[in-house]
Amino acid sequence: MWVNADRGHLPPSSSGVGAAGRTASIARMSLYSVLLFAHILGAVVWIGGSVSLQVLGMRVRASADPHRMAALATDAEWMGVRLYMPAAGVVLLAGIALVFTGSWSFQQLWVARGLVAFAFSFILGATVVGPTAKKIGERLASHGPEDSEVQASIQKIFLASRIELVVLIFIVFDMAVKPGA
Hints:
The protein has helices at residues 19-63, 66-101, 109-143, 148-177. The protein is mainly alpha-helical. It has one domain (35-177). Helix 1 (19-63) packs antiparallel against helix 2. The radius of gyration is 21 Å and the shape is elongated. The two termini are 17 Å apart.
């Protein structure tokens, strides 16, 4: 990926660039490409995992088996902390680095929307998903998976996650189309 000031990409066969300029362009290209790869891979893991969990959640919910639903919620919490949160962090850090490395600006609408969506996801996780997951764990230990409060809390987490997923899918569209870029 070759970087320029107007669209972020320049074909590899640009004329009029001396050896020193070419070396600097290659260094920028390599860093930008690695950051872009990390950003996209992080998004694929985070959003793809969320889509998979939602589909699996619908399937498990249709079974009406509270043990399966509780097991899925427990596994989803485990994946969230160990896979999705780090992937989201990679998306954020690589995205910020892409703005500094490429020809983008934090004032561009699509960049600002991405940061707002990340903040939304973070706040949702900190205020709804995290505390509810903790409550589920405590309640499961004392009342079991059949408990109506456990099941209601699981549904609350899946609803919050579904809302977050819609926002994240919108941001993928926003990042791909880059309105105003």
